[in-house]
Description:
CATH topology of chain B: Rossmann fold
Oligomer: heterodimer
Helix content of chain B: 25-40%
CATH class of chain B: Alpha Beta
Number of strands of chain B: 10
Strand order of the largest sheet of chain B: 6-7-8-3-9-10
Bound molecules: adenosine-5'-diphosphate, magnesium ion
Number of domains of chain A: 3
Strand content of chain B: 25-35%
Helix content of chain A: 55-70%
Radius of gyration of chain B: 17 Å
Number of helices of chain B: 7
Largest sheet of chain B: 6 strands, mixed
Distance between the termini of chain A: 31 Å
Number of helices of chain A: 20
Number of domains of chain B: 1
Order of helices and strands of chain B: EEEHEEHEHHHEHEHEE
Largest sheet of chain A: 6 strands, mixed, barrel
Radius of gyration of chain A: 31 Å
Amino acid sequence: xxxxxxxxNVWRNRVRSLVIIASVTIGIFAGVFSIAFMNGMxxxxxxxxINEEISHIQITGKEYSLNxxxxxxxxxxxxxxxxxxxxxxIAGTVERTIISGMAGTATKNxxxxxxxxxxxxxxxxxxxxxxxxxxxxxxxxxxxxxxxALIGQDLAKELNxxxxxxxxxxxxxxxxxxxxxxTLEKLNPIAGIRFTNEKKFKKxxxxxxxxxxxxxxxxxxxxxxxxxxxxxKMTLTFLDKDNNQVGVVFRLAGIYDIKxxxxxxxxxxxxxxxxxxxxxxxxxxxxxxxVRINDINQTEEITKALKDKLPEYEIVSxxxxxxxxxxxxxxxxxxxxxxxxxxxxxxAFGIINTMLMVVLERTKELGMLTAIGMNKKKVxxxxxxxxxxxxxxxxxxxxxVGWLTVLLTARNGINFAQYxxxxxxxxxxxxxxxxxxxxxxxxITLMIILTGVVSSIYxxxxxxxxxxxxxxxxx
Amino acid sequence: MKVLELKEVNKIYDGSEVHVHxxxxxxxxxxxxxxxxxxxxxxxxxxxxxxxxxxxxxPTSGEIIIDGTNLSKLKSSQLIDFRMRNIGFVFQAYxxxxxxxxxxxxxxxxxxxxxxxxxxxxxxxxxxxAVGLFERxxxxxxxxxxxxxxxxxxxxxxxxxxxxxxxxxxxxxxxSKSATTLLEIMxxxxxxxxxxxxxxxxxxxxVKMAHxxxxxxxxxxxxxxxxx
Lengths: 475, 228
Ligand SMILES: Nc1ncnc2c1ncn2[C@@H]1O[C@H](COP(=O)(O)OP(=O)(O)O)[C@@H](O)[C@H]1O
Ligand SMILES: [Mg+2]
């Protein structure tokens, strides 16, 4: 009866209750959606870091990380090393040879890390082979009489390997992408011109289009207008094992495109066999073993187990390599709870205010109820329930709307193409797929109920202080 | 059988500005199935006296004993519970919970007392029939006339079979026809249920229907007149 009465009381002042419920709905919706957005962004970043960049655990020789000394090697002659793939919880391993060097074309030079890999084995650990830009290569698939190298998109831009042209095919493709014809017409003055420099290309587009247009379409135009010359070459320069400088011409095996500018600019992949031949390194030795594990939640345990087993080596987990991401995964729930708590605290003031008005308006009724024998506990519960109903009705609506929005936007993601450069500089994709877990909804449901309860305390205490004889007096 | 006993009850309102002797040396007994009116001019202390009897207010001195229990010996939480189990109330106004139907209002105390649904329904239907509102049981108070609302309040007051029912000017807001109807219903229930009614009024026609008339003047009982 008290539940029923409290629920019906909510609808006594329909407009006022709806206003407060609507504000809770909006607050919770905003909270749910922004958290889903952040969550998706973080999850994608971690996913990318693990699957494309660093995997779970890296093993190198002692002190290798201090100055990347190529003399500090690991070999298969160590039976513990060769036994790692069979340890429990480990999904697979790959070995890499790493040499610092320079990548250069006729016009440009850049410092890079040259990574010798076994392309087939790498596919078991990384998904880099799936990020090759269309038409740029086949990830070492085809046999070639040349030495092959895989480079990142940003390095390709830096070395002027990617160039930009507005021609009829490009314009056609841009039309398909629903860019207005009169915007495209403005590009006529640069039609046919080949830009080897991304910045210059961007500049001329910006000068031809209005600010708004270039903000809205600039990224898309750039994405369509780029081209790549088949059989592009570059020179990799590095030191061999006797410290002699070697410069070798490589053909491109492809350009990979991930969402991390720094990685793209600095990591060049070549076949391990080629690199060993060119540097004269022993074929049984390498610099780094990368370990992928089955369950990311076991990172710490497995890292520790490996450290115990291999005291002579340096073992770091992705959490140590990317402390920012590690912190996010470890504290993400506290972060979200804190964020929701701030929203709910703001909403609580609205609920408190409403409930105070309720108590004030119903002085006589509450007095009557105490007089006829409704005890303090029940009066308190009735007011608390009314307050909880306000918060929960708004909260549940907000969660449903938020959840539906997440479902809807998660299908195709939300693409902030115009901010892609900024976000990729930090390793974040600008195409975000919001994502949220059921446990999060349980957490906010509890927080919403708690908000209702807490907001009712002060008004309920006021109600309990009423003197029934005073309250019902009709003078 | 004695259901209620007042011994030398005094109530003095002693504020910084006021000093009112609202109830003065009142000693009274009420028995089972009495139908008593408390009359007197405005300000004579009727409401104060009923509030004291109902445990809504505490006497400055004297004792109020209900069925062997001295009210001043009860802690405030016990007192609320005691009221729920032993006393029915009908006020001049604001008797009903506006969001509940007539039936739900009558049931309210029974549900606080955790009666079973079946017991509750039986008693509610019986009382709504007795006050002539069985057909209106699903109406909300706002859809009923003042007289009908007071009849629901009477049914509510009797619901959990209290020792007695206190009604402070139950007819004050009613036209004379509704007032008479209400009194007739109260009298009938008093007779059928053997429950004592104590009500205050300054309406002469209502006074006429009482079996006992206690007259107050300046907080003092000036006459106690038993008829029949
Ligand atoms: N809470 C109070 N504080 C001070 N004086 C009061 C209070 N309640 C009632 N009185 C005074 O007590 C006297 C009796 O009042 P009341 O019991 O309401 O009389 P009645 O119900 O017969 O009109 C009046 O003089 C009234 O002003
Ligand atoms: Mg009065």
